[in-house]
Amino acid sequence: GHTVLISSHVLHEIEHICDRIAIMNRGKVVVQGRVGDLLGRGEALEVRVEPLEEATRLLSGVPWVRGIVRQADRLVVSAPLDAAAAITKLLAENSLYVSGLKPQEQSLEQYFLDVTGEAR
Questions:
Q1: 3 state DSSP class of 70
Q2: Cα 108–10–2 angle (5° rounding)?
Q3: Distance between CA atoms of 92 and 8, rounded to whole angstroms?
Q4: Over 90: is that where the pLDDT of 113 sits?
Q5: Who's near 104: CB < 8 A, 6+ residues apart?
Q6: Has residue 33 got a pLDDT over 80?
Q7: What is the pLDDT averaged over residues 56-66?
Q8: What values do phi and psi take at 100, rounded to 5?
Q9: What is the predicted pLDDT for the residue at 118?
Q10: What is the mean pLDDT of residues 19-31?
Q11: Is a pLDDT exceeding 70 seen at residue 119?
């Protein structure tokens, strides 16, 4: 039932000690909410599989996959965490074997850069 206001540029620490945050840019609040909700935790899976193009084609046809982004040597699949088994099964049934799969975790620092437009 208490609120403590912390202003800090050390976003890694803020991410770990705060339940809710507000991000300000040029004196205005640009976003606020629960840290987990803002960072989208539980909404995307990093999948390491080869070839990426074939995996993208297969996963694009799945109704509960909301999007796929290629990041270097992996795919970031926008899907519920409980879809991990279904993803590995689909890929394996098509002779594509997953070498790594984990929930995607965006840092608060990267999120800050994205919402303030500083990442450009």
A1: strand
A2: 80
A3: 46
A4: no
A5: 43, 44, 45, 46, 76
A6: yes
A7: 94
A8: -165, 140
A9: 74
A10: 91
A11: no
- The DSSP secondary structure of 4-38, one letter per residue, reads -----S-HHHHHHH-SEEEEEETTEEEEEEEHHHH
Q: Per-residue pLDDT averaged across 91-95, rounded?
A: 97
Q: Phi-psi category of 87—alpha, beta or left, where left has phi over 0 and alpha has psi -120 to 50? A: alpha
Residue at 114: amino acid letter: D
| CA–CA dist 120, 111 (Å, integer) | 13
CA 60, 61, 65, 66 torsion: positive or negative? positive
DSSP bridge partners of 69: 76
pTM to 2 decimal places: 0.61
For tokens 């705060």, the residue is 18
Reply yes or no on whether the pLDDT at 104 is more than 90: no
DSSP conformational letter for 72: T
Cβ contacts of 65 within 8 Å, gap of 6 or more: 59, 77, 78, 79, 83
Closest Cα partner for 21 from 120, 116, 118? Answer: 116
Mapped onto helix, strand or coil, the DSSP state of residue 45 is strand
Residue-level pLDDT at 42: 58
